[in-house]
Automatic annotation (TrEMBL):
Protein name: Complement component bfb
GO cellular component, one term: extracellular exosome
GO BP annotations, alphabetical order: complement activation; response to bacterium
Matching SUPFAM superfamilies: Complement control module/SCR domain, vWA-like
Disulfide bonds: C105-C132, C166-C193
SMART domains in UniProt: CCP (SM00032)
Pfam family, one: VWA
Organism: Xiphophorus maculatus (Southern platyfish)
């Protein structure tokens, strides 16, 4: 039932919002501005809506459909039948969690990548993209075609380009265009085609993002026996500036905000344990912007790291008052079209999709630990 007039605020109802095979949570009960978040078991995802927002007139957006009830659907993986010069078996119309595929190349072609792959609960295929190639004398190897994608460009000489698009309702994460370099390497990173229900695992994010961290920070053994801690040498520009932005708008639950704040504190403490002193800018934003830490204070030596952590711990969500950009998009319904453009020009491998906020802290734990940073002797 909707409000009799636009001037009156009404609560939403729980009519037709239940989900078969799963459950849901409400950020503000049935009040205006409440976000309804559907949950399913691993290997399943909410369909047709991932979330719903309670509007001021008492209606849900998107509106529940009587003839298309909300349910948990089995996760689907992108179509692997895009491999060139080979066969995929079994040839199915759709591939779901647990489905296994095998790959064979035509005569005269050699298989690179995985000969068998399994559709995983996060909507990705296990292993690596199978590629059937032969020695053509080209400067670069055949870059292949990831599941669910189409490739334009079949010449692999120096300065040749290949371009990728995703089929159907899939969207591309990674490099849309790659160029063959003189050293025989392709620019950028291999793209992947994601569904809205596709997510990266903390280990995947740690391996990718951690690689960039290790490219900037190099662990060295100290020659001074009195220093037990590990030292980090900033090996590029000599300065490390870290900007962190966190969404704390109405739809973000207090518990999720606190987990995000704790993850940031974890990252700062782990970097500090390597005796490096980056400059931080930390901003929480909703309809207003709350600057917890100003990077200029670091440049002017007006702030200490302990004070940064203290201010972060004190910050409450109820408050009323061409650099490399890494986006950690986390949640049930991610606005990829708005977030992905923020990483344009960064090589295409700086956008990560994660399903749970708690996985961010796990990711930082995996990225910066004694086992993940390479040690070098001075």
């Amino acid at each position: 039932t909707r409000c009799p007039s636009a001037e009156v605020l009404c609560d939403c109802t729980d009519h037709d919002i239940q989900i078969q095979g799963g459950n849901f949570t409400l950020t503000k009960k049935l009040e205006k501005g409440s976000l309804l978040i559907y949950r399913c078991n691993d290997g399943y995802y909410p369909y047709p809506a991932l979330t719903r927002m309670c509007q001021p007139n008492g209606s849900w957006k998107p509106a529940p459909r009587r003839f298309s009830p909300q349910k948990c659907k089995l996760v689907e993986c992108p179509d692997p039948n895009v491999m060139e010069n080979g066969n995929v078996s079994p040839p199915e119309v759709q591939y779901f969690v647990g489905n296994e595929t095998s790959y064979e190349c035509y005569s005269g072609y050699t298989l690179r990548g995985s000969s068998k792959r399994i559709c995983l609960p996060n909507g990705k295929w296990s292993g690596s993209t199978p590629i059937c190639s032969r020695d053509s004398g080209s400067a670069c190897p055949d870059p292949g075609v990831p599941p669910g994608a189409s490739r334009a460009g079949n010449m692999f000489g120096i300065d040749d380009k290949v371009r990728y698009t995703c089929n159907g309702e899939l969207f591309l994460v990674g490099s849309k265009e790659r160029v063959c370099l003189e050293n025989g390497q392709w620019t950028g990173t291999e793209p992947a085609c994601y569904y809205k229900h596709t997510f990266d695992t903390p280990r995947e994010v740690a391996e990718s993002f951690g690689g960039a961290i290790k490219g900037t920070l190099t662990t060295t053994q100290s020659l001074n026996d009195t220093q037990e801690g590990r030292l980090i040498r900033i090996s590029k520009s000599g300065t490390l500036n870290i900007y962190i932005g966190v969404d704390i708008s109405e739809s973000i639950e207090k518990e999720d905000f606190e987990k995000a704040r704790d993850a940031i504190i974890t990252l700062i403490k782990k970097i500090a344990s390597f005796s490096v002193s980056p400059n931080y800018e930390i901003v929480f934003f909703s309809s207003e912007i709350y600057r917890v830490v100003n990077i200029l204070d670091f440049f002017n030596a007006k702030v200490e790291l302990n004070k940064v952590i203290e201010d972060l711990e004190k910050f409450k969500i109820e408050s009323e008052s061409t650099p490399n950009i890494y986006i950690f998009a986390i949640g049930s319904d991610i606005f990829d079209d708005d977030l992905q453009p923020l990483t344009v020009g960064t090589g295409g491998n700086h956008y990560f999709r994660m399903s749970k906020i708690v996985e961010l802290k796990e990711t930082f734990d995996l990225i910066i630990g004694e086992s993940t940073l390479k040690r070098e002797s001075c």
